[in-house]
């Protein structure tokens, strides 16, 4: 009887490659749960390639990244760009371009008739997405009638429901999944628009994945008491079921108001709170208010029980780095500040004194505003 020849092993190139376990002797689904509890993804990235791939996979909670609006100083006057800074790889990635006919392509940051004046572009981050709410076109009219929405998880742009009153130089803010737009001007000044406020509730009757632009979901609220908030682009700070607004930037005489989102009512801002508005203000997840003095570079925290602002000590020369602060946002105890000289500065207020460092920005791009959102998909990792 003939004996069958032993089957020869496949050549090395055709052998199946067996991936090592994420954690030895543990099933991968359990390892993924354990590793997802690490709050510093950069530590996981430094261990091995498999862990680096994991933190960019759908199985791992998306870590926070800086989504930044830039002005391209090397391009024409209307060129703005959105990019995402990945803190793990220390790499800037451009956001996918919006559709060709998107209003985003018509927004101006600098107008040929105003050499030293920048036109405001107002964006906010809500429910894990970036919303572009207001801006001006070449005719100095509102460039946006429907909010433009970027979803970093799907890396797609979409359009939200039409605003009741498209406007520019207005108040924009959010609290608990609700977007608020108030005051400002349309093509021409109107007292009706300057005193109006409307909201878009993302928690009610809306699909967060894709807001229907054909539905009128904006709700009109009780109008403001006067029209003094139509002079500048203003950020409404969501703080303990209220929106805090101050009508003038810089060291000029200011007026502050507080809108109660529960009672739909307006009250004047207490003087002890208003005095701290010497630059951009932000609020943390723990509802702590921080301000950055644009002329002195000092950082302050509002102590509600004492009804006063307390200065936070920073590292040596840190205040020089923060002078000219224009906009600030926060995540995990870190303030991310855009300064007037084209820098992004991070302040770690969890340390004493607070540590400060620069985030290197791409050449030729001038940061306008930063927003903390989940990281974008990185297909180049796989």
UniProtKB/TrEMBL annotation:
Gene3D superfamilies: 1.20.1280.50, Kelch-type beta propeller (2.120.10.80). It comes from Arabis alpina. Residues 23-60 form the F-box domain. The lineage of its organism: Eukaryota, Viridiplantae, Streptophyta, Embryophyta, Tracheophyta. Pfam families: F-box, Kelch_2. PANTHER family: F-BOX/KELCH-REPEAT PROTEIN SKIP25, F-BOX_KELCH-REPEAT PROTEIN SKIP25. This is F-box domain-containing protein.
